[in-house]
């Protein structure tokens, strides 16, 4: 018996799946036809036979890379069971069998009592079972794919039954196990079926939702109202984030609701600490947009930790006799250093959408709490460290970094690493006070060094520096990197070493400058929006190593870094801050323009298009496979579920608008900043929901009239089979 834990990311619900090895997913459907026929025997006696025709199957599971299915057909009676098999269909999970099997269902007079211990002329006592199997050469035999049981009651007076069935789990029959022998397992299973209409049906509600980022105040928007009426913020956040990501409007929406939350926050130490709609939406955005970021950043070091199994327990109470406390501390310190380094060096890989969100959070927090210099960092670290990296380290299997939950020893190591990384990223005033355990406070003394806090701030500066030039007017310049390098004089035609000068380079999210020395006025300033590409320069150009070029509309600036690592760092960070520029190049010249021509392609015009494709440089943002109409349908269903709360909220808006007095007690849970605007939005929401409800009602009526139950489009399942049988006894046809 194998126990697997899976996470349904769309609904954010944990599902435990219990599977008997070998692992096979129960799925598929089968088309069966039953017919009762009278047959005259050689002696002239009339008896009744059941013709069972297995026509085809669809969607059977793939087992070990292929499917070789066959069907076993059995007639089950009170005292007998006869079975017959179809031929095996090789390498297909949509087999076409079309085979007929005959079973006698009444007792001919010539049969003796020993053939039939019980009178069986009543076919209602019998059933047909069709089992689907995968033919296997493995030692443990063929794999069971599913079954259907069809009581012969369904034949009714017509004697004919033709229907599709969903395959069901195996029926254990009379087998029973004592509960004490097996234990118990509690499951929470949620099944959701969405009927998605054409896109135009959702236009009113979708347009209303997508305007949420521009609403003033944002608390009067449709998206914010959804978060107010839902029982859990998470159920509103999931479809909202997917919808706004799909239409490219996630950043304005999150910026608006985050700014509103910051303005309601009184203490900078509690900023974004609650389970608000803002927090849940940003969590969901990081989960969707940042999964690849986690893979390239954390997965290698997590894999190493899980493979090494080094002892890292530092709690003296839990220490094993064979372990040494100082050795364990050193092991843990090395792991924390490794993880901390890969995180703080990963800023250039952070997805653009996350950087834009963090930039907005930083600006809102800094503007609201101007006296607190660290709030611009804690506003971002509360998400990237507390809600992103720390949980991924703690439970790597939930973030697709590991296939299974780590063993207890490794899990303990990851817990200690996660705690330390979370505290390092928090930039709290008193680090040791953050730990309840004294052994953790002692261990943290290793990291009471400015280099760690400086590294965190540099990392947060980079990921919260928006690369969009149109944000320049509202952002405070952030220093991202600086240092001495050698640059070639721009605009010179002469070739010689005297054209190369040592300069102090400084990069902010607004501009790239160089100075004669540190602290002096800039000799040259290149706005970030003017950087068209940042690429390496071939060594042959100037017979110098570690060179790169910053390409501008008029010319390229050629720079030599101190070493290859420094060159790579400058290229990465310059690419990061300029990657959203509108006129970025797709091709470039890998060599310099000297003596009247390009050394790489020999073109004489200095404006000649590049001859080599630009390198990607950074991981591309992940394109999500999101169905906008499906997400709008999910949001509609939430509004429909909580329609009573919408009406209460509408009443609250009316009360506040008319009397302008204190809120009534039953409405105190709603945030209503502008009653008039909120009332208008609520009215539009209710109108859109009612229109969709009418479409759903019409769809159900049409479905009831047109769809035959048991057809390929609507196979029969166990949960409604008894209803089907009862209906069959009353009439010859049944449809929904």
From TrEMBL:
Q: Answer whether the UniProt record assigns the keyword Repeat to this protein.
A: yes
Question: Which InterPro entries does the UniProt record give?
Answer: C2_dom (IPR000008), C2_domain_sf (IPR035892), PH-like_dom_sf (IPR011993), PH_domain (IPR001849), Ras_GTPase (IPR039360), RASA3_PH (IPR037774), RasGAP_CS (IPR023152), RasGAP_dom (IPR001936)
Where does the PH domain start and stop, copy by copy?
478-579
Ras-GAP domain spans which residues? 232-426
Annotated C2 domain ranges read 26-165
Name the UniProt key words of this record, in alphabetical order.
Acetylation, GTPase activation, Metal-binding, Phosphoprotein, Repeat, Zinc, Zinc-finger
Q: Which GO terms describe its molecular function?
A: GTPase activator activity; zinc ion binding
Q: Nucleus as a keyword? A: no
**Top-rank lineage group of the source organism:** Eukaryota
What biological-process GO terms show up in the record? blood vessel lumenization; intracellular signal transduction; negative regulation of Ras protein signal transduction; nucleate erythrocyte differentiation; thrombocyte differentiation
Protein name (Swiss-Prot/TrEMBL): RAS p21 protein activator 3
Organism expressing this protein natively:
Paramormyrops kingsleyae
């Amino acid at each position: 018996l194998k126990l697997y834990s899976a996470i349904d990311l769309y609904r954010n619900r944990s599902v435990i799946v219990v599977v008997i090895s070998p692992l096979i997913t129960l799925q598929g459907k089968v088309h069966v036809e039953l017919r009762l026929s009278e047959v005259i025997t050689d002696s002239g006696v009339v008896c009744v036979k059941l013709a069972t025709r297995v026509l085809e199957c669809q969607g059977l599971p793939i087992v070990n890379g292929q499917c070789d299915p066959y069907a076993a057909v059995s007639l089950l009676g009170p005292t007998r069971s006869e079975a017959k098999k179809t031929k095996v269909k090789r390498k297909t999970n949509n087999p076409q069998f079309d085979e007929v099997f005959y079973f006698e269902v009444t007792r001919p007079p010539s049969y003796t009592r020993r053939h039939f211990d019980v009178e069986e002329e009543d076919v209602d006592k019998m059933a047909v079972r069709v089992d689907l199997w995968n033919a296997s050469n493995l030692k443990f035999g063929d794999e069971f794919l599913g079954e259907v049981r069809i009581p012969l009651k369904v034949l009714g007076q017509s004697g004919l039954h033709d229907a599709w069935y969903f395959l069901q789990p195996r029926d254990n029959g009379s087998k029973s196990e004592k509960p004490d022998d097996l234990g118990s397992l509690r499951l929470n299973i949620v099944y959701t079926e969405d009927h998605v209409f054409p896109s135009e049906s959702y236009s009113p509600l979708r347009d209303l939702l997508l305007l949420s980022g521009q609403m003033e105040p944002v608390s009067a928007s449709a998206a914010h109202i959804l978060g107010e009426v839902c029982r859990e913020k998470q159920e509103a956040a999931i479809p909202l984030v997917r919808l706004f990501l799909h239409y490219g409007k996630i950043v304005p929406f999150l910026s608006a609701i985050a700014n509103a939350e910051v303005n309601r926050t009184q203490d900078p130490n509690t900023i974004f600490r609650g389970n608000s709609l803002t927090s849940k939406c940003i969590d969901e955005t990081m989960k969707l947009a940042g999964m690849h970021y986690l893979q390239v950043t954390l997965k290698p070091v997590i894999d190493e930790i899980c493979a090494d199994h080094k002892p890292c327990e530092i709690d003296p109470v839990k220490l094993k006799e064979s372990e040494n406390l100082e050795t364990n501390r050193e092991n843990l310190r090395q792991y924390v250093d490794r993880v901390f380094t890969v995180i703080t060096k990963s800023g250039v890989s952070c997805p653009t959408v996350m950087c834009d969100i963090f930039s907005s959070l930083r600006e809102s927090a800094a503007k609201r709490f101007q006296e607190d210099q660290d709030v611009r960092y804690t506003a971002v670290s509360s998400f990237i460290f507390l809600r992103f990296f720390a949980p991924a380290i703690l439970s790597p299997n939930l973030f697709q970094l590991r296939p299974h939950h780590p063993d207890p020893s490794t899990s303990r190591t990851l817990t200690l690493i996660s705690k330390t990384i979370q505290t390092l990223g928090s930039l709290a005033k008193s680090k040791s006070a953050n730990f309840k355990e004294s052994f953790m406070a002692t261990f943290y003394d290793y990291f009471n060094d400015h280099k760690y806090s400086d590294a965190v701030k540099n990392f947060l500066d980079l990921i919260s520096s928006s690369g969009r030039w149109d944000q320049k007017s509202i952002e405070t310049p952030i220093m991202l990197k600086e240092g001495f390098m050698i640059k070639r004089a721009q605009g010179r035609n002469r070739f010689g070493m005297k054209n190369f000068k040592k300069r102090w380079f400084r990069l902010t999210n607004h501009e790239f400058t160089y100075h004669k020395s540190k602290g002096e006025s800039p000799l040259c300033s290149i706005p970030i929006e003017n950087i068209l590409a940042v690429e390496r320069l071939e060594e042959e150009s100037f017979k110098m190593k570690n060179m790169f070029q910053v390409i501008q509309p008029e010319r390229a600036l050629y720079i030599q870094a101190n070493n290859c690592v420094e060159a790579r760092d400058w290229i990465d960070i310059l690419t990061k801050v300029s990657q959203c520029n509108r006129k970025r190049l797709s091709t470039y010249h890998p060599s310099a323009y000297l003596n009247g021509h390009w050394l790489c392609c020999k073109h004489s015009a200095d404006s000649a298009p590049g001859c080599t494709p630009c390198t990607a440089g950074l991981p591309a943002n992940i394109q999500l496979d999101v169905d906008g109409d499906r997400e709008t349908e999910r949001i509609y269903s939430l509004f429909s579920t909580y329609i009573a709360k919408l009406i209460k909220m509408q009443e609250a808006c009316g009360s506040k608008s008319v009397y302008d007095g204190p809120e009534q007690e039953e409405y105190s849970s709603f945030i209503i900043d502008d009653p008039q605007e909120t009332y208008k939005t609520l009215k539009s929401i209710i109108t859109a929901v009612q229109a969709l409800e009418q479409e759903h009602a019409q769809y159900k009526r049409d479905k009831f009239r047109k769809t035959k139950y048991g057809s390929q489009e609507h196979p029969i399942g166990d949960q409604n089979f008894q209803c089907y049988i009862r209906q069959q006894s009353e009439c010859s046809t049944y449809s929904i």
